[in-house]
Amino acid sequence: MKLQLSRALVVEGKYDAARLTNLVDGTILTTDGFxxxxxxxxxxxxxxxxxxxxxxxLTDSDAxxxxxxxxxxxxxxAQNVLQAYVPALPGKEPRKAEPGREGxxxxxxxxxxxxxxALQDALAGAPDHADRPLPxxxxxxxxxxxxxxxxxPNAAEKRRxxxxxxxxxxxxxxxxxxxxxxxxxxxxxxxxxxxxxGLPEEQA
Length: 204
What we know:
CATH class of the largest domain: Alpha Beta
CATH topology of the largest domain: Rossmann fold
Number of domains: 2
CATH architecture of the largest domain: 3-Layer(aba) Sandwich
Largest sheet: 4 strands, parallel
Oligomer: single chain
Order of helices and strands: EEHEEHEHEHHHHHH
Radius of gyration: 18 Å
Structural class: alpha/beta
Number of helices: 9
Strand order of the largest sheet: 4-2-5-6
Number of strands: 6
């Protein structure tokens, strides 16, 4: 059974995210390594998600991972962050030809039980430990399709314009977009804020 997370989980890269997808049920966001330092749209997204539901930061145990962790914590405010730490274990991931600069396993190479324990330890220190479920009126993949944002003509272009209107990074995948929208909005508030109440019928 997957670990249920009410807070958004932040990891460094796509391989970390893919690994954690098999272990947790919740929003998973990536910093794209050091991209977080300069990507203003990504920074604003993390601030908004942190205010809406809080973050759990899970980065590698090397110097680069801690640099990202400290930057992100300062960016969104320590009060909005739970810190999850993996042990500093020597090794390299199978997909890599050489180990990292410090010769340590990254998040993607850490054993499942250690990852779950790291998250559980972080959650144990949360003042608002109880899960906050997603709203019943969830935004779904079907909504994205009906709004012309997925699976139809010019969907990618429309999705980029949609994300720009919301002030969200254009690089969000469809899965990430659904998670983020459900974190920041209800369907009703999203349509109201954009003036899109007739969008499904207009773009069907």
